[in-house]
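Sample log: dTDP-4-dehydrorhamnose reductase.
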Amino acid sequence: MKILITGAKGQLGSQIINIINNGQSELGNIDSVYNNCEIMALDVDELDITNLNKCKTVAKELKPELIINCAAYTNVDNCEKQEDLAFKINALGARNLAIIAEELGAKLVQVSTDYVFAGNGNEPYKEYDITNPLSVYGKSKLLGENYVREFCSRYFILRTAWLYGLNGSNFVKTIMKAAKEKGELKVVNDQRGNPTYAEDLAHHILALAVTEEYGIYHCTGQGECSWYDFAKAIVEYSNIPCKVEPITSEQLDRAAKRPSYSSLDNMMLRCTIGNNMRDWKEALEKFICKVK
């Protein structure tokens, strides 16, 4: 099998590659079909997914059977300032990959976000719930979802949340660094969601991709918390002496509005391949042990 991975240097793309190369993740073995696969790992300097003609040229040369799109513009606040760029990468990029996947008869994995929901409820969102994003980031990712559904017939859309991994920057690394340097942190306590370890998400992406269980999935760590709870756990598991204080979103005053409650329910995983995502605290503790 020939696999094209976009955004290959990011925390999710690199994790997927590591798991394929090892033949297993922390959750267990992956399908033997990956044993002899050819990985074509491309990042933005090698493939501009916003350019349809370049995507078609690459597709014609490489002829992938599976495309995993890990490329995205994920800086939520900057998306508000660079709306066109956000939609080019998150929406048109997804559309372009969907078009070439359909032309090749390839499968496409598109990674999306909990921010496609408004977050004004108090129960975890299921895959069938109505989307209503508040931010440019959420809107651009939702349009990307819609393009994938419109232009590709063999797709897996995985919505995830609060992602962290070994490569690149993320909330866990930021908190660990700030805790060491400052000894005191203030973190919002009025936004709730699901911290997700890239290792666990990557494992489930690879498990789904060998099936024909096409559709939309939620794939996040089990359990929910606030960013404040998340930060406190990071400091605790890292054994860093640091005081963490709760604040409100209004006090933080950010450019993009976040959903106050965007927890996801991995219902369709349970109904198909099984939901083996770890409890967010268990996964976080394992990750911090690796980082340290």
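Observation: Residues 103 and 182 are 53 Å apart (CA to CA).
Observation: The chain has one domain: 2-169+195-222+263-278.
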